[in-house]
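Project standup — Tuesday

K.O.: blocked on the structure for the chain from last sprint. Re-posting the sequence here as requested.
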Amino acid sequence: MEIERKFLIKELPDLSKYKFTEIEQGYLSTQPVVRIRKKGDKYILTYKGSGLMAREEIEANISEEGYKHLAEKIDGNLITKKRYFIPLDPYTIELDIFEGHMAGLIMAEVEFPNEEEANSFTPPAWFGEDVTNDRRYHNSNMIFGNPFAE
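H.V.: unblocked you, prediction finished:
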């Protein structure tokens, strides 16, 4: 079970002291969500159930060859982003700076062990709007274009 909240960012912290990884991901299906992801030198196939803040998530490692084969079959655009890992005891903020067709979007996700902790979480002052329940901010809804472009 994945339990996470998503936030826009009002002001970026100094990112120079945090580790990051480059991520690219594509979607083979959006209902149900079936995603492939390259994260550093790891390749992952993911199934996500329905839901907004809490939903089933199953991951399996795949080979680079498998990833490349499936990447030819994705719907829409490949999503690319740089993910920073920012400690916020006892959690880790995953700060995504999107590139490509979603360039300009910066979003933070925080995962929780249960819904009670998720609901009682007080975000840091540099977080902006809570977009957990706004489906436009699910990566699987960003593959066909930028839903925020005017």
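K.O.: great, moving the ticket to review. Helices lie at 64-71, 115-120. The first strand starts at residue 2 and ends at 9.
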